[in-house]
Hints:
Layout: H1 10-36, E1 41-47, E2 59-64, E3 70-71, E4 76-79, E5 82-84, E6 87-90, E7 94-95, E8 100-104, H2 107-113, E9 121-123, E10 132-138, E11 144-151, E12 163-166, E13 169-170
Parallel strand pairs: 8-9
Antiparallel strand pairs: 1-2, 1-12, 2-8, 3-7, 4-5, 4-10, 6-9, 10-11, 12-13
Amino acid sequence: xxxxxxxxxxxxxxxxxxxxxxxxxxxxxxxxxxxxxxxxxxxxxxxxxxxxxxxxxxxxxxxxxxxxxxxxxxxxxxxxxxxxxxxxxxxxxxxxxxxxxxxxxxxxxxxxxxxxxxxxxxxxxxxxxxxxxxxxxxxxxxxxxxxxxxxxxxxxxxxxxxxxxxxxxxx
Length: 171
């Protein structure tokens, strides 16, 4: 007696095996991607137009909301279509999970302006637009990790205040 069941067909079994293998590979890639992306730095506050002269007094606050420490000096601050390097000035190059740090245009002026700030300070070379622009933080592979877009409608234009992320809304 000949069994004509499609389950006995070698081609069918081979195709079923390949389909299961593809599904397993896809699920594994999603899982591994979520594990590997355990680091995440966010731009959380920006001083783009301080009262008086802007030169050397602009800065951004960054927050590590990922599950592991990162080496911020391997990242880039993307502003005005330039990948600006980041240098550790005070506190080391590592940003621990749950830690806030400052990225200053001029770290010496920042530490003078905010002498009571005792956290980590990083230096970069940038000049933020007073009318608004897009700012991004890129990881060592130049993948964008965090981006904000600001403009004067958000406030803080020349009055000494900052704009910041409050529960996902910039104000």
